[in-house]
Write a structure and sequence with these properties.
Elements: E1 21-27, E2 30-31, E3 35-37, H1 49-53, E4 56-58, E5 61-65, E6 71-74, H2 76-89, H3 97-110, E7 123-132, E8 145-154, E9 165-169, H4 186-190, H5 193-201, E10 206-208, E11 225-229, E12 235-238, H6 247-258, E13 264-267, H7 271-274, E14 279-284, E15 288-297, E16 300-303, H8 313-327, E17 337-339
Parallel strand pairs: 9-10, 9-15, 12-13
Antiparallel strand pairs: 1-2, 1-3, 1-8, 4-7, 5-6, 5-7, 6-17, 7-8, 11-12, 11-14, 14-15, 15-16
Bound molecules: pyridoxal-5'-phosphate.
Family: Belongs to the class-IV pyridoxal-phosphate-dependent aminotransferase family.
Modified residues (N6-(pyridoxal phosphate)lysine): 184
Cofactor: pyridoxal 5'-phosphate
Length: 341
Amino acid sequence: MEKKNIDWANLGFGYHETDKRFVANYKNGNWDEGTLTSDDKVVISECAGVLQYAQTCFEGMKAYTTEDGHIVIFRPDLNGARMEDSCRRLEMPVFPKERFVDAVVQTVKANAAYVPPFGSGATLYIRPYMFGSSAVIGVKPAEEYQFRVFTTPVGPYFKGGAKPITIRVSDYDRAAPHGTGHIKAGLNYAMSLYPIMEAHRQGFDENMYLDAATRTKVEETGGANFIFVTKDGKVVTPKSDSILPSITRRSLVAVAKDYLGLEVEEREVCFDEVKDFAECGLCGTAAVISPVGKINDHGKEICFPSGMEKMGPVTQKLYETLTGIQMGRIQAPEGWIKVVE
Ligand SMILES: *Cc1c(COP(=O)(O)O)cnc(C)c1O
């Protein structure tokens, strides 16, 4: 198969239309079979549930080429299960996780020419999503839905090495207790746009959100979970019902325990103890781990000993081991790598 003529190394993180996308429709209580289509346009009622009351959720994952030339996806079954959870909480029909994985695989296969070659650092980003497509004017769930999967090639997350970022403690909340923080709902992102733009305007890369009820515990950023390393080498990651369960974070926890023999604590993390940690990173599909060098708490700075030049040593090891597993250099745990072709 001939690859598209794309300057992989210089791609950014943006939408670049590919050949095919998967579309399935839910009507009269059932999902249809779904199909691949070349049509990139969505046509829905002007009164669609998604447009009026934001009834939509999504997933994000990557397909990439391994060292031995296979196209693979990392743990798509977990994305499928998480999307089921998102749908239930938003009164949307579940698209079964087995069918989700099949739709993702079909879409990636159909766009194989856009999967960047091994070594380019680029990947094919996969975006499954669902939305209420039929008209609703009274506040209630839509009766019809569309599930779609599109792909878009994206460039290397870190161009020229992973430089630590600076984040600020946000005065805004990301998720209410018993709210929707644990699901990947579009609405969680809509309301995060103002705080992230404000953070950028003030010169910060990201927001650290604290728990909305007490503002004493670390939750996550707008799109990534935290992982900390203590001065004696333990990995600590916040536990909360209002955090989005990152698949990258769950995988890093397994890597820390089973591959690196590190002690891992998944527990509530008080903001007060953050100043005593040795390393801090943000984890999510896009970057795997983004090192945090500095946290600004209303003008008071917490500077991690790992500094502003490079990742801390434990973060680095976690990063190398997980990306090694993803790229096929290190034996993956059973079921982690889905081979597309
Ligand atoms: C998607 C997302 C993450 C990262 O999850 P991954 O499965 O690791 O990509 C973390 N936090 C939020 C709020 C997210 O939406």
